[in-house]
Amino acid sequence: MGLGGISIWQLLIVLVIVLLLFGTKRLKGLGGDLGGAIKGFKKAMSDDEAAKQEAEEAEQKKVAAEEAAAAKTAEQKEKTEAK
Question: What's the pTM?
Answer without folding.
Answer: 0.45
